[in-house]
């Protein structure tokens, strides 16, 4: 019987549990490397290390491609003594090499489709490494069954395709033993990778939902590892049966009798990878539907439905594509479906007469595709349909085969230009370039491992990024003569979690003291409206305020507000507000804030996952409808904001620096503090101000973010409490001028 600790995620992640009741194997694969180097011990008790100090002695560009299955075929020799292996030329993984640099070595890690006896595994491993540069991950049968046919196919695959278990009889409930097998399998994969990796030199590219835990295992071991993950959401199995142009062909023959006796639907259904009673019922239902349609509309020598439910060879599939006038792909949710691309290439190889493939006649093709599949947006000439709408799909099929040849030719030419230039090599090259760009600074950054189990994360920061020393900034502050101090409000001097956003008497006193020093130019730069900021900071007479990210700006309480926006027209609000209201009605806990110059949608009180999803969708929606308006749409911390162009905190900072320089008081001390994305504009403007001469190269710069996170700032403080403490220290070192306002008689 399992103990409670056995089911703990931390134990699962670290591998400290028996493998599905089996004793742990003492025999390990031989440790192999294709490049000389020093290898640290890889025993399980060291798996919690988050850093690698091992540097290979020879540098060589290499990428390790990890997937559930290796791109090789295996079969037993006729004499039953050993195995013979060959490349699987249809494997997508094998084609990835075409997009990688020619000099780059490629190593594959994955499982085999056959069961290899434990006594043969070492020999098979060495043979595959020597001849194919492949490293096999051998999964015990009980783990393999629960990992692949269990957790992957019964839980992950349905979730990725929106097929939820609405009842106990539909899809099955969560089974923890399947999850444990999934973790165990990923652990085995990680051990195979660790045995061959040069962590300082290699790239690792992990593929698909079978191995979603693997990156965590590897990142815990090597926190600077250059690693990428691609989720394919592969072509579904049982979904093929659910969404057959199930019924759309029958509808088309009813609505358009002219096609009876002429149109034939050849339905190729890839064999289902999963198992279960549910799948068997669906297959039986499809067989009955095909039989019914053929009996209703069939004639001697003619059947409208040809249903192929078996594996077919590449040449047979190409033959079908070549003669097809139209291809219909109606998956409800799909990732990397290459069927439309394959069809287009095949049609490019046939002439209009179909009698001579050598002819140079015009080429034509037609596609009807589900609007939900991943390749749909790239096929602008295809007819897109909602596959759940049988009538619409039937009409689309009729439109496709009824279209004039000239239009078919134009659509085909457009698609072929795209497909011929966006092949697997193009995708592979693009992904690798993205991974290179993302990982280029890995080895010069300082890294920290944070969290336990699958909550583990690595924070990588610039080596110059450090905590702001109060003693240091105070000493520099005392030596300076012209100081610029720019303070964000929410999340900087006021905690984000505080319900009462009114500044405390302590904050008012500190800011009043700082702004009262003749050597200081102090600004609160906030996204809040000017009415709130004016009311809150009314005691601070010499404080500058930039409201609504700088759309409104004033230098002191005695000065008038300046409008810094480029355009005073707000007709765009009539376009943006209805869109925001639409999402507000659909997102419980969200609100709209109407500012003088901007509209802000807040979703901090909404469900985090749903709110984030809605925010991304709203961002795209607003950018689309406001494309011709003089505004920018930005996302921030639980917000989506629409504001006029040319308005940012960076513009405020630049204006403060420029005004000080023009008045003969060029800043020799700059303190700029903020906590979110909008404050990064202030940090960014500092370097350009130095290069343009507005700030001197000798100016002491203290750009500081709140919290340890990637930032353009050089310094950080942990939280608003530390910010207030630092400002208090500066206030104590200040020399405020006497309060000069006239005090009304009798007020004492």
TrEMBL record:
Q: Which Gene3D superfamilies match?
A: Glycogen Phosphorylase B, HAD superfamily/HAD-like
Q: Which Pfam families match?
A: Glyco_transf_20, Trehalose_PPase
Tell me the superkingdom of the source: Eukaryota
Give start-end ranges for the coiled-coil region(s): none
Q: Which CDD domains would you find in this protein's record?
A: GT20_TPS, HAD_TPP
* InterPro entries, per the entry: Glyco_trans_20 (IPR001830), HAD-like_sf (IPR036412), HAD-SF_hydro_IIB (IPR006379), HAD_sf (IPR023214), Trehalose_PPase (IPR003337)
Q: Where is the signal peptide?
A: none
PANTHER family from the entry?
Answer: TREHALOSE 6-PHOSPHATE PHOSPHATASE, TREHALOSE-6-PHOSPHATE SYNTHASE
UniProt similarity note:
In the C-terminal section; belongs to the trehalose phosphatase family.
* Name of the protein: Alpha,alpha-trehalose-phosphate synthase [UDP-forming] 7
